[in-house]
Structures are given as C-alpha cells and as structure tokens.
Write a structure and sequence with these properties.
alpha/beta; 227 residues
C-alpha cells in the first residue's frame, strides 16, 4: 500500500558479530525522526552472546567458540551458519509501539512464518522466543535506546545445533532446541527470509524495499564496551 512507510531490507550474508554490533549501535545513535527504518538479515560466524542479564555459569563449555558480552536483553544464546539473524532497526515512537508489543509482534511474525510450512509454534509467557512443543526454535534479545530498537531475533533453520549443548540456552538448563529443516521445512535460508520479511512487514505496517547488501560503515561509531 502506498501509505505504508518503507522498510529498507539489507540481506548481508555471513558476517562476524562485532562489526555488525558496532554498526547497528551507530545506526541507532545517529538516526533522527526522519531516518527510514531498516531490517538487517544475516548469518553470523559461530559465537555465543551473553545478554545484560547473562550469567557466565550458563556457558558450560564454549571451547573454540568466542563468548561476547553484549548490550541486549536476555541471557546466553548461540549464533552460527544456517540460522537467520534479523535485526529490526525500528523507530518505536513513530510506530506507536512499546517494548512488550514489539516483542509480541516479532514473535507473531515468526509463528506465522512457521505456519506457512505447517509447523505449529507458540510463545511462552515470561520466556521470550518461539517454541515448537517443548523445543525453542527462535530466540529474541532486544535493546531500545532513544525510542528505537536494535538487536533482534535468531531463527534456527538448517544449522549445526551441537553448540547449544555447550550452554544453558537463554539461561534454561536442559532446554531443547530445534530448527525448521528438521520439522519438514526448507533448508534454504533465502526461502525462509522471504516469508519472514513479509510477516514482519505485516506486523509493523511497513513496506519492504531492497537496500544495499553491504553492512553500513559507521562514520563515527561509539566504542564497543569491554565487559
């Protein structure tokens, strides 16, 4: 619809974690009321990230995978190839949304994406994310600054799930983890991204526009805090 605000969608491929974190923090700090919202879609090199509430004891045996303490909400999770990571960089004031509704709408977009492949998924009260039966298929970890969101969601599609056994996922001991490819869905991430983009746009009343598939380089990025 022509009256919908645009959402610039960057499909960034596989990226190391730190430059992306720095870029989204800088984008959020530099934006103003006229800045167009963006959605960054990518896969990360293997990494464990520990949110602001994270406790190191939930990292059981990181091995060769780095552990990075970050400024999002939530506990510890794993990112790696075969997982869709999506960072909705949204002006919540302009959209008229609070944090709780932001979380619910992202969860619903994932639930509706899974429904396309007849996978029944649900949310859990007090445990952000999306679940299929007792297993978690998507994690959320968000940050809001100056009324704008960054960080986002991690959606398991066709990845090596072994690293999740090295942590208590999202701080829950023994939490089972699953992925779409093991539930009869596609293993090609682009196919799932196409649907997820549409569902996120539907939830937020935005219109997707393809943007450069290159990570924006911050002009004067704030330094990443050292844990």
């Amino acid at each position: 619809m022509s009256n919908q605000r645009p959402l610039q969608v960057r499909r960034l491929g596989r990226q190391p974690y730190l430059p992306v974190w720095q870029a989204m923090r800088a984008f959020t700090d530099d934006r103003d009321a006229a800045t167009t919202d963006e959605l960054w879609l990518l896969q990360h090199d293997p990494v464990f990230t520990l949110g602001q509430a994270g406790k190191r004891e939930h990292v059981l045996a990181a091995g060769e995978i780095p552990v990075i303490a970050v400024d999002r909400g939530g506990q510890v999770t794993y990112h790696g190839p075969g997982q869709i990571v999506a960072y909705p960089l949204l002006d919540l004031r302009r959209l008229g949304l609070g944090v709780r509704e932001l979380v619910q709408r992202i969860e619903q977009a994932i639930i509706d994406t899974l429904d396309v492949w007849n996978v029944v998924a649900v949310r859990r009260e007090g445990a952000p994310g999306v679940y299929v039966g007792a297993a978690k298929i998507a994690a959320l970890g968000l940050r809001v600054r100056r009324g704008c969101s960054f960080h986002g969601l991690a959606f398991n599609v066709a990845m090596d799930l072994e690293p999740f056994r090295r942590i208590n996922p999202c701080g829950y001991r023994g939490l089972a983890v699953t992925q779409l490819g093991d539930l009869g869905g596609p293993s090609r991430l682009a196919d799932v991204e196409d649907v997820l983009i549409g569902q996120l746009c539907r939830q937020f009343g935005l219109r997707a526009e393809a943007a450069s598939p290159i990570l924006p380089v911050p002009a004067a990025a704030a330094p990443i805090p050292v844990p």
